[in-house]
């Protein structure tokens, strides 16, 4: 039975709280909810099922509507607050308030918000930011479902959601509108703000039939000022346990340079990226990678991104590290040349944000290639190049895992202590291949120490 309820949790001074609610909403009885027209269901089902991010290949909009019950809530994080409109089952699974501490940001912000030519406001580095540096952490100001299963105008729901905020937060949220003086009487302004500024954040959902979609729409007052680029210099990560976003530099950002993030998957071909941006956010991408003057430059960029995407797919033709170590027929530089080329393409396309490889890595695909190069040079007993690349691997990990420095310093001072040292030389020289297994990643080596 789709319905709208009010939160009634009591406020606690010890943890982030739920402020008292305003006027209660009237529950929508199941008898008053008509089945959506078949053509509407078909269109929405296709859109949701085909969206790889949502991971809902069997989504059924008609059943989705009949199983929804929503809750408004206003959460207080001290200097921040968040107005939410969530499925009741999702609301019940929100993390414990004690985990939702106020965002930890430096007293002196390392960014400014100011005019960006042709883009409205943007975020700019106040000083040089290094690769891996945290730019900010923040809670969302509003969160709503990706798809709302109620037969009432979205504008009315969003208006109610926005107006539950305090006056300062509401004013800052409304300032995200493209209009310099949005008419508060025109409810469509709320929809435009959600469409243009919301990021996809995942929340826990109940393990029941026709559960809510895990991906929700969240607006972040500061991060929403980051403009889009298909070669972004920053990335954002959502932590549902702390209900917060972290914005991090993925390469060095010069003082005064604009801080950008990807709004859509940056590995897509150019035409697909531009169409997606236009459809989802309503603007034409004008970043460097979408404004080449020559058609051949667009083609070269598309081929580069396709190559980077295929590098981690099942149809990649490169042998595994173990197979390369044990097969003399493979050239010594086969993997080395391939990994260096990928790093070159990442730099040329500005895709340090890519994270397509297996498992987790603090430096994403860039780090995976660095790891692989260090391992290849180690397997070849190339001391000089091994030290160059293992030092780069160490430097990339130190911001997140400083405790690993001891292992890296050991390998730098005594390369022969590296677990795969000389593997290819030993096997291709007639040695035993039985030991060449189980240590195909530096992460595994570190776990063994």
UniProtKB/TrEMBL annotation:
This is Unplaced genomic scaffold K443scaffold_349, whole genome shotgun sequence. Residues 1-30 are annotated as: Disordered. Residues 13-25 have a biased composition (Low complexity). SUPFAM superfamilies: SET domain. Residues 109-264 form the SET domain. InterPro entries: SET_dom (IPR001214), SET_dom_sf (IPR046341), SET_domain_protein (IPR053185), TPR-like_helical_dom_sf (IPR011990). It holds the Pfam family SET. It comes from Laccaria amethystina LaAM-08-1.
């Amino acid at each position: 039975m789709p319905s709208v309820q009010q939160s009634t949790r009591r406020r606690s001074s010890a943890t982030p709280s739920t402020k008292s609610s305003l006027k209660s909403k009237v529950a929508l009885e199941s008898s008053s909810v008509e089945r959506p027209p078949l053509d509407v269901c078909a269109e929405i089902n296709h859109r949701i099922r085909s969206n790889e991010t949502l991971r809902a290949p069997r989504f059924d909009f008609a059943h989705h509507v009949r199983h929804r019950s929503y809750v408004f809530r206003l959460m207080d994080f001290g200097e921040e607050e968040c107005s939410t409109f969530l499925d009741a089952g999702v609301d019940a699974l929100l993390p414990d308030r004690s985990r939702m501490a106020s965002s930890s940001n430096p007293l002196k912000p390392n960014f400014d918000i100011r005019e960006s030519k042709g883009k409205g406001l943007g975020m700019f580095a106040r000083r040089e930011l290094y690769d891996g540096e945290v730019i900010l952490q923040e809670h969302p100001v509003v969160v709503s479902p990706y798809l709302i299963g109620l037969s009432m105008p979205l504008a009315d729901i969003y208006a109610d959601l926005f107006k539950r905020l305090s006056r300062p937060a509401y004013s800052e949220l409304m300032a995200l509108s493209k209009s310099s003086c949005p008419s508060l009487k025109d409810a469509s302004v709320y929809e435009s703000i959600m469409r243009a500024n919301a990021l996809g954040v995942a929340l826990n959902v109940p393990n029941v039939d026709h559960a809510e979609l895990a991906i929700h729409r969240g607006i972040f007052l500061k991060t929403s000022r980051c403009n889009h680029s298909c070669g972004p210099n920053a990335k954002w990560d959502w932590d549902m346990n702390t209900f917060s976003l972290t914005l991090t530099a993925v390469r060095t950002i010069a003082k005064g340079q604009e801080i950008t993030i990807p709004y859509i998957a940056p590995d897509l071909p150019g035409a697909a990226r531009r169409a997606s941006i236009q459809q989802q956010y309503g603007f034409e991408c004008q970043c460097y990678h979408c404004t080449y003057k020559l058609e051949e430059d667009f083609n070269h960029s598309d081929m580069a991104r396709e190559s980077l995407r295929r590098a981690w797919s099942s149809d990649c033709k490169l042998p595994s590290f173990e197979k390369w170590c044990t097969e003399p027929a493979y050239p010594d530089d086969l993997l080395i040349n391939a990994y260096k080329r990928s790093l070159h393409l990442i730099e040329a396309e500005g895709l340090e944000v890519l994270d397509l490889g297996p498992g987790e890595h603090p430096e994403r695909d860039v780090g995976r290639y660095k790891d692989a190069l260090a391992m290849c040079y180690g397997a070849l007993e190339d001391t000089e190049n091994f030290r160059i690349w293992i030092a780069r691997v160490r430097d990339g990990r130190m911001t997140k895992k400083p405790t690993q420095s001891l292992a890296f310093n050991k390998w730098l001072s005594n390369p022969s202590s590296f677990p795969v040292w000389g593997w290819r030389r030993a096997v291709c020289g007639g040695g035993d291949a039985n030991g060449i297994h189980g240590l195909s990643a530096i992460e595994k080596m570190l776990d063994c120490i």
